[in-house]
Amino acid sequence: MVPPELVDGVLERFPLWELPSHFADIGGTPVHYLRYDAEHPEALPIVLTHGWPSTVLELTALAERLAAPSRHGGDARDAFTVIVPSLPGFAFSPQRPTLTGAEQTHDLWHRLMHDHLGFRHYAAHGGDLGAGITSRLAEAHPGSVVGIHLLAAAAPADDDPTSLTPEEQKYLSSVAARQAEEGGYLRQQSTRPLALAPALADSPAGLVSWILEKYRAWSDCGGDPSTCFSDDFLLTQASLCWFTGTISTSFRPYYEYAHHLTRRVQRVDVPTALALFPADPSQPPRSRTERTYHLTRYTRMPRGGHFAAHEQPALLADDITAFFRDLRSRHPRAARQDL
């Protein structure tokens, strides 16, 4: 667990102290989250889940737009009450205490939204690791989750090679080529995370290098991260891992998934939207996504990459808003905060 005095010290060092931070005890598991209250009284609650290598900081610009759309040229009636939790093991949320027997993250999120915050119905969005968590959240709690918006999609549980379309076959070939070219980080974090962690926890330069390489490779920066990210943003992301000592615990989702400790997504039947940003490595065809999800919106964005919430918050906010605007009109009960 991150000591409270260390959390206070980190919050004092960075502009994060200005953000709406809260802590919840979910069945003995501490969870840190940001809360942005909506500007409209009948707002739909939404939980946003970040990925790796990231923190809640990546989602703040998106959260602000969703909570107060009128400040950005939108309609206040489209506002959301936005909850942005820190993943277990990332910065201010301690990692779950055991590999087995503890609640998985998607169930923690449901208990946070439904039990702790009192939202009977809510929406969800996620990319990278957050896309998997969001998918499992919708699969496990379809009575509460009105719809999900994703930046990546889970692979079909039963992937029959004989049923693949030419587009899907081309996509899987590209995935294999990409993994061969740059999948070293994934293999290391999935198999021997604790062999890597001490070096990164001991060297600020090594930690920044490990993280910055992904911001360069996965963003729409043309090889120059400064075109998408300020030095302050990148150094703050790295510092949040450094000062809380959480780079090692941030690797654990990769190990858990590789060792079948994370539940695989089978079928998501709630309405699902997928937004693909061109520089993001994940570009599944629509037909492949439909094998797993009740896909009702599929959008190819004109620009942006893996860190879309920070790179292109306006584009992403508009797509989330448009998707859930239709769901609000068809499910009026979901357009109220049931506190």
Automatic annotation (TrEMBL):
Keywords: Hydrolase
Domain AB hydrolase-1 stretches: 45-168
Active-site residue numbers: D128, Y254, H306
Bilayer-spanning residue ranges: none
Record keyword Hydrolase present: yes
Source organism superkingdom: Bacteria
GO terms under biological process: epoxide metabolic process
A GO term, aspect molecular function: epoxide hydrolase activity
Family assignment from sequence similarity: Belongs to the peptidase S33 family.
Protein name listed in UniProt: Alpha/beta fold hydrolase
Organism: Streptomyces sp. R39
